[in-house]
Amino acid sequence: KLTSLALQPAITPELVQGRVHLKCSYSPPSPEPPVQFRVLWSRLSSSGKREQIHQETTPQPFSYVEMDGANLRLGDTVFCTVTAFRRGIPEQQSLPEDSKGFYAGIKFLPESLEIAEDGKEHVLTVLSTVPIACPGQDDSCKMTLQLSTEDLGSQVPGPPDIALSACQVDLLPEPCSGSSCAAATVTVTAVTDFAQDGNRVSRISARPAAPRDLLWRAYTPRDVKVTVRDLPTGNCYSFTDPHIITFDGWRYDSHKIGTFLLCRSESRAFEVHIRQWDCGGHRSATACNCGVAAR
């Protein structure tokens, strides 16, 4: 048998005549006599076993397989295994060499998030590891992903603990480099809910919006799990003839009549206005809260 030849097979995505293909490339041994290559394509099944999807024998240092949506679908992790043998002597073959697994589809980076109710924005990158193909519509070629959030497993079901900066992102085709053929970003922020509700888990889902390409039609990318760490919340009050207690515990009274700025954030668009009106009549100068506006 031939020894291990360090063929180093690797999978890269490629558009061939407007259709998504995967290419397995490997280094031919030199200066060996002419050899041929047996290339076995496989994918991981849901049970974690490899399923063979295609096999060919070729003298070329590469092999292609099409992502047709049937034998090979988005969401598959794909491998190619290459064996070299001398032409005419197939029993003299090298040890088979595996490529790394190639995940074909949408990836979120990071794959999960742990954030806190502190108002900070966290960048989530959405990328496609395969080219975006738009046959016949090259002028506005893109893949739109609808994003949604959902609360997971809290004792009191309610709105998710997270907010996104956008409800959808557009993946625009670009030359594939690294593991990305198209990428977009969205920011994730934990909702400051003024409730001591413990750490909660939400998820972010993405769905291709009205894809024309059959390859994308039945595809649902993996969700992103987001754990939100609960933080204690500050409170402030204005009550009765108004007694005011500030966030840091100062107490004072305000008996004036008019509209006042009660609170304003210096770091975000948030403020509260209060309207106080006479409620004591002639006997005492007393004002009461009669209106509030919050932004």
Provide a descriptive summary of the structure in words:
The model has no long low-confidence stretch (mean pLDDT 88). The protein has one helix at 214-217; strands spanning 10-16, 19-25, 35-44, 50-58, 62-66, 77-86, 89-93, 97-98, 102-103, 106-109, 112-116, 121-128, 143-152, 162-164, 168-171, 182-190, 200-208, 224-229, 237-239, 243-245, 251-253, 258-264, 271-278, 287-294. By secondary structure, it is mainly β.
Write the layout of secondary structure elements.
Elements: E1 10-16, E2 19-25, E3 35-44, E4 50-58, E5 62-66, E6 77-86, E7 89-93, E8 97-98, E9 102-103, E10 106-109, E11 112-116, E12 121-128, E13 143-152, E14 162-164, E15 168-171, E16 182-190, E17 200-208, H1 214-217, E18 224-229, E19 237-239, E20 243-245, E21 251-253, E22 258-264, E23 271-278, E24 287-294
Parallel strand pairs: 11-18
Antiparallel strand pairs: 1-2, 2-5, 3-4, 3-6, 6-7, 6-8, 6-9, 10-12, 12-16, 13-15, 13-17, 14-16, 17-18, 19-20, 20-21, 22-23, 23-24
Summarize the entry for a quick read.
It comes from Vidua macroura (Pin-tailed whydah). The protein has 295 residues and is mainly beta. The protein has 1 helix and 24 strands.
User: Secondary-structure element order, as H and E?
Assistant: EEEEEEEEEEEEEEEEEHEEEEEEE
Detail the poorly predicted runs. none
Give the rounded overall mean pLDDT. Answer: 88
Helix content: under 10%
